[in-house]
Design brief:
alpha/beta; Aspartate Aminotransferase, domain 1; DegT/StrS_aminotransferase; 11 helices; three-stranded antiparallel beta sheet; 12 strands; seven-stranded mixed beta sheet; pyridoxal phosphate; Aspartate Aminotransferase, domain 2; 3 domains; single chain
């Protein structure tokens, strides 16, 4: 408990109270800069609607073998059949393998940009055009990120975004249609107010703990215990974000007005700058004890997290959480439709990638502490046991 009291590093950015009343800023990055955008409670809702909008139900969609699983569930629920292509050990999409797997049944290409790092979108665009099929860019992990000067989500026929992984908002996903062709997209209804309120309070309490140390933690614990009792007594349905599965009951839920208000008040360029600074700090402090997945940060990339390659994820994850760092076991499982034995590099990624927070809430001082804790955990993991003489 003593070490936890010194450090609290949430996996996602927290909501500062002043953000609730801050004036809007002009958004220069998609989806906020996009004229043809629709907002949803979840990004997965946008995936489902994309299948219907492009009339892909009944056809095959070529998707990466390295996936979360919920986007595959949305594709299947919408009536399309997922097929999978190879992704290498550095999150590198094998474009030659994609080309080889395109058949007359292929109705669309699906590209995921991992944690802010751009995939080969130009090559995938060329392939899609050669076969006369649409390209879907999944930017759920890559909000605010660019490939050089080109914002991710603007090259494909459709760009799909998740807001609450990058911004301190209670919910939110977006679908952006690019190009000249227009679609009649419904404006989904707002989600339950009580659910949005519950998520907002949770984000505010995390901010209280982040800034208030032990006192903030005690207040957060007290408020949470009272709040849970009130929610249970009132039978409030809390539509959880970050869930592992697609739920058709929530497909028509839109984004809350509060989410849009908070999102539009964010300093987007400042967020990108802070995330890049924190990533570079971790890279410089950890590269000698854990070979980085990426040894550099390309121009335009807004990293969602620092992907660290480890050998014993469960042990290291427990050590970091014990010290107050909410590290995440990144994309542990294949969707059942994808055969793990066909993609050994992806299976290895799922066994070894740990998500270390580097978001905009974390100061250089906190990131220095994070780096120290991670280094010590890695060193203790690799210390040789003493042999009997």
């Amino acid at each position: 408990m003593k070490t936890t009291d010194k450090l609290f590093v949430p996996s996602l950015p927290t909501l500062w109270p002043g953000m609730l009343m801050a004036p809007p800023r002009p958004g220069a990055l998609p989806p906020f800069s996009s004229p043809n955008a629709r907002y949803f409670y979840f990004a997965r809702n946008a995936v489902w609607l994309t299948m219907k909008m492009l009339r892909l139900d009944g056809g095959e969609v070529l998707m990466p073998a390295y996936h979360h699983g919920v986007e595959v569930e949305a594709v299947v629920d919408a009536g399309a059949t997922p097929r999978f292509y190879r992704v290498g050990s550095r999150w590198d999409v094998d474009v030659a393998d994609v080309a080889k797997r395109i058949t007359p049944k292929t109705r669309a290409l699906y590209l995921i940009h991992y944690a802010g790092f751009p995939g080969p979108v130009d090559a995938m665009r060329k392939l899609a055009d050669e076969h006369g099929i649409p390209l879907i860019e999944d930017c759920a992990l890559s909000l605010l990120s660019s490939d050089g000067a080109t914002p991710l989500g603007t090259t494909g026929d459709v760009g799909i975004f998740c807001l609450y992984k990058t911004l301190p908002v209670p919910n939110g996903g977006a679908l952006v249609v690019n190009g000249k062709r227009s679609y009649s997209l419904p404006e989904p209804p707002a989600p339950p107010v009580a659910s949005t309120f519950s998520h907002t309070i949770s984000a505010l309490l995390q901010n209280l703990e982040l800034r208030g140390g032990a006192v903030g933690r005690s207040l957060r614990g007290l408020v949470r215990s009272v709040g849970h009792g009130a929610v249970k007594a009132a039978s409030v349905e809390r539509v959880a974000t970050g869930t592992q599965h697609f739920d058709r009951r929530h497909v028509d839920l839109g984004m809350s007005p509060l989410t849009k208000r908070i999102a539009l008040a964010q300093d987007l360029e400042g967020i990108v700058e802070a995330r890049r600074r924190n990533y570079f700090l971790l890279l410089g402090r950890l590269r000698d004890v854990s070979p980085p997945l990426f040894n550099q940060l390309p121009a335009g990339v807004s990293p969602l997290f620092y992907p660290m390659v480890v050998q014993d994820k469960e042990t290291l994850l427990a050590k970091l959480r014990e010290k107050g760092i909410d590290a995440i076991d990144f994309w542990k499982r294949f969707h059942p439709a994808c055969d793990p034995t066909e993609f050994p590099e992806v299976a290895q990624l799922r066994r070894t990638i740990l998500e270390i927070p580097c978001h905009q809430d974390l100061s250089p001082e906190v990131m220095g502490q994070v780096a120290d804790v991670v280094r010590e955990a890695l060193k203790s993991e690799r210390r040789p046991s003493k042999r009997a003489s």
